[in-house]
Design goal:
4 helices, 0% strand
Amino acid sequence: MMLNKKYLKARTFWDCDFDKLDVVKDREFMVSRLVQRGSDLEMLHLHSVFTYAEIYEILKHYMGIPKVALEHYKIMANAGS
């Protein structure tokens, strides 16, 4: 599965052209932004599409992710193992 832009808000991606974001090509950027700035509903969508392990694998390669968020996904990914 992949992210569906109809469940996402353009204001979460305020610094880029939301209409030009590609859910396949820009997947990692979109996931990292949702974790950092997403609304509750956007987070529900994110978690319906990706496992905690998948999100953690994406986030651990991104600078600027709050340590608490990265640690949360690491713990949750290991809990699912």
